[in-house]
Amino acid sequence: MIDNKIIQDLHTHFYSSMVLIRKFEEKIVALSQDDGRLPGMQILANGQEAVATGIVSTLEPEDVIVSNHRSHGHIIARGANLNSLMAEIMAKETGVNGGKAGTLHLAVPDVNVLMTSTVVGAGPPLALGSAFAQQYKNSKAITVVFFGDGAAAEGSVHEAMNLAGVWKLPILFVCENNCWAGAQRPEEHCATPNIFLRAKGYNMPGESVDGNDVEAVYNLSRKLSQHCRSGIGPAFMETLTYRMRGHGEQDRQHYVDPKELAIWAKKCPIRRYGKKLLDDGILNTDQIEAIDQEAKTRVEAAVTFGDASPYPGPETALTDVFVHPLNT
Amino acid sequence: MSQKTFGQALNEALTIALEIDETVFIAGEGVGVSIHQDPNMATHGLLEKFGSRRVKDTPVSEAAIAGLAVGASCMGLRPIVEIMFFPFITLASDMLVNHAGKLRYMSGGKSSFPMTVRVKAGVGFGAGSQHSHNLESWIAHSPGLKIVWPSTPQDAKGLLLSAIFDPDPVIVVEDMMLYRMPGEVPGGDIRTPLGKARMVRPGTDCTIVAYGAALYVVMEALDPLNEQGISCEVIDLRSLVPLDKACILDSVRRTGRLVVVHEACRFCGFGAELAAMVAEEAFDALKGPVKRVGAPQSPVPTATTHEKIFKPGPENVVLAVLEAMGK
Could you give the ipTM of this predicted complex? Predict the structure, then answer.
């Protein structure tokens, strides 16, 4: 029997984590509307906060995450330093990767977000290496790789699932099915409406879950991550959620039916969970308000930190290609 | 020193690496149980000696094999993976070009990728263009990747060991036509430094640069050239990235002439880079045109009669040197 305090803390953590991710990304929306404030594309996971929070909350510190172009949620849920994350998205010198990653290529090894790849479908083969290293070192750690319904069409994902199945690697494959791959709906690019069914073909357990229900995500992730941790082999989890914004911030979603968007807005994982916490008497409105306020304050502090930081100087533009620079 | 074939020298390097470093493992298609059962194959006998934890046969999945190397090296292991034939590297190219070569830079130096990719290359065994296609220029053109190409058993061992223990991703190209070639190989953990060319033979009239099996085509051209009173200086490049610019430029400044020989297509081949480098940095020393000897812009043929037309021979080298000499 877990005591009530732990449960209350977990509920509070779920809510706080989702709110922090949302506020952080809402700030990016605002910043990206200021010309030149943020370089490159901004790709957000607005609406998918329950997936990142629910799954990452089941991980041990030594577990490894391999993420993709829609990575902010996974990284924030993992507890990365918000200041250096925001500074990196601004491509500042104080960013977690010295301004060389930007929003798209973040790597935060100090919280074991080993790498992200924006090449769609590249995460799973990379996760093979991480999980192999864990198995090779006899560690109890596992690797979680996040990818989308669009990535599920890449051959590399199949190669990785097959090899993980053959070698029984400790990988939790997480397919965040957010109903959109670019401007394509699953029925336009995916031969099956149930991507998780593919797990059977690779001899691993696979289940789907309401990706906007943080507790359901957490519970399934606990079950499947324990499976991976036990050394039996990989597992597959499909989270059914919705991409509330465009593929990137330049995408005005002209192809999206506003009615559908409105339906999913009502299923917002944060609003839904906040209401549940209030209804169940786990948190009161003051506490909810305080959590929102704290998230806002932390995000503002991160922006202030980023704004105050310089852009990287020319002397680092060509460093870090190799460990020891070449003479040629 | 003992006599070993090129393949046995590679095998010795892999054995030493597995023996001295617990983080080293080998993975690829047929690296454990091979269809060949040939002691001249680089991975022959390693599974029996080191077991299936460290010598891993994989499915036919080049992207997965390369991804395995990228991810495992980032986690502190030293993977040595094999891509069976050079043209198959296209299937692994996203993992190599977009990941192995870029992730360290994009991490701001937080991550490193000490991985080795062995790839078998070669033109002249009649298997046609999907088993024979030298793509070294693709690799050399991709930032963050190193590429070496030994031509002797000693360098096969020394370059492979250096590659394995280098902190960055290295592609080691193994010429299949050389696997059975014998040579003197020093015992123990020998390292041929990456980025150091080898002076094969000093000469005064024309510098010839080659790598891999093409070096032996050059060697066959030396006698006929000598008979015409032309003394050639031959450089075995050994390493394309890093490139030993100093060695080439120094030689060209002495001879005043350069001929580059490789088996890859001449158009946009690595020889073009060397020709451009010499034009930019040693133009005043040149006494004649820089000449490139390479394959025509065509898929590698299958028929022996066609292969002869495709693959540069000693006569092409002789002709190129004569042209460089203005004869």
Answer: 0.96
